Automatic annotation (TrEMBL):
It comes from the Eukaryota. Residues 217-332 form the Mon2/Sec7/BIG1-like HUS domain. GO terms for biological process: protein transport. This is Mon2/Sec7/BIG1-like dimerisation and cyclophilin-binding domain-containing protein.
Length: 344
């Protein structure tokens, strides 16, 4: 993907000028209390001037130095100073928007966002930054991607209603973005022979993707696997650090993926397995009238009276069943899938 700066040299020059202004402001603000940040900012200013004079492609010049360039802003965020935080986060967002962030720099940014999340600071700006970082391109992958998603999930379960709603929208957008990557990846020809799918490995579950999948598909597989785990009230394999999850939200995410990306589930045997061996049994289990679905309720005394499922859960389950029948019927009636359809 061509970067914004490469196709727009004037915009890249504006980015450089804005970064210089941000660094000057940061240096002035940190002159007394944070001399280490002041020194780091001044060092980066020199590097930016060098890039400006020697690099025809400014973004290409910024990328290999992006770890050093973001360092003063990361240090500024780590002070948790309310005066520095907005300045530093906006500067980081600006670099992300111009695709001037390397994989290593992205890892550092996610770590910074995580620390701010744990401190309960600038929650909306954290979500904005995470969305930019994960949707502008595919620089964030694998464990770093999982950490960014967990960050958004945890912000979804804060006490502030605005943050909760914004995080919910962010998570839905990011889940779609991760599966969009798979669609694009599938369009890229590969000469490598496809490995045989290890069904036993799929049954066991893992924090590492099946070796038969390419990188973006592997991330999407792990995400879908963990959504099934969480809805089933099991511990996730990949999304480590999750502290809370509701079945209603999890079912909404599963439905969105099943509705939006049937081509992925029919193309890849690993994803087909998830539909037949994870989603269908999960739906059947949650439809069982002998289970309690309202989260947080104490267990019923034994023998428990028969109880109807919690309405919000049933509504979402019915929508998933409709999607399975509409989009996945041929898959489910194939070998090994007939019993799932019959039970549904």
């Amino acid at each position: 993907m061509a970067s914004y700066g490469q196709s727009n040299p004037e915009q890249a020059k504006k980015l450089l000028d804005s970064m210089q202004n941000d660094l000057r402001t940061l240096s002035a603000e940190c002159k007394r209390r944070n001399p280490d940040i002041k020194e780091a900012a001044e060092t980066v200013q020199v590097k930016l001037r060098t890039i400006s004079t020697k690099s025809e492609d400014i973004i290409a010049g910024l990328l290999p130095l992006s770890v050093e360039i973001i360092q003063p802003f990361v240090m500024g965020c780590d002070t948790k100073n309310p005066k520095l935080l907005p300045l530093c986060l906006v500067a980081v967002q600006r670099m992300i928007s111009h695709e001037a962030i390397s994989t290593a720099a992205a890892d550092i940014i996610i770590g910074m966002l995580w620390r701010l999340m744990e401190a309960g600071l600038e929650e909306l700006k954290l979500l904005q930054t995470a969305i930019l970082l994960l949707t502008i391109n595919s620089v964030v992958q694998h464990d770093t991607l999982a950490k960014a998603l967990v960050l958004c999930f945890r912000l979804h379960f804060t006490k502030d209603s605005t943050t909760i709603n914004t995080a919910a929208a962010a998570i839905k957008q990011l889940v779609s973005a991760i599966f969009d990557r798979v669609v694009l990846e599938d369009k890229i020809p590969t000469t490598e022979p496809k490995e045989t799918v290890n069904i036993e490995q799929l049954k066991a579950g893992s924090r590492t993707p099946p070796s038969s999948l390419r990188p973006c598909a592997g991330d999407a597989y792990l995400l879908f696997q963990d959504l099934c785990q969480l809805v089933n009230a099991d511990q996730p394999f990949w999304l480590t650090g999750m502290t809370e999850m509701t079945r209603t939200f999890g079912l909404e995410l599963l439905e969105a993926v099943l509705v939006g990306y049937p081509q992925i589930f029919t193309k890849h045997e690993e994803f087909s397995f998830m539909v037949k061996e994870r989603v269908c049994p999960l739906v059947i289990k949650l439809f069982s009238p002998s289970l309690k679905y309202r989260q947080g309720l104490p267990p019923a005394p034994s023998p428990a009276p028969v109880e109807k499922p919690f309405f919000p859960i049933v509504m979402r389950l019915l929508r998933i069943v409709a999607v399975l029948i509409k989009n996945y019927y041929p898959l489910l009636v194939s070998a090994g899938g007939y019993s799932a359809v019959r039970n549904l």
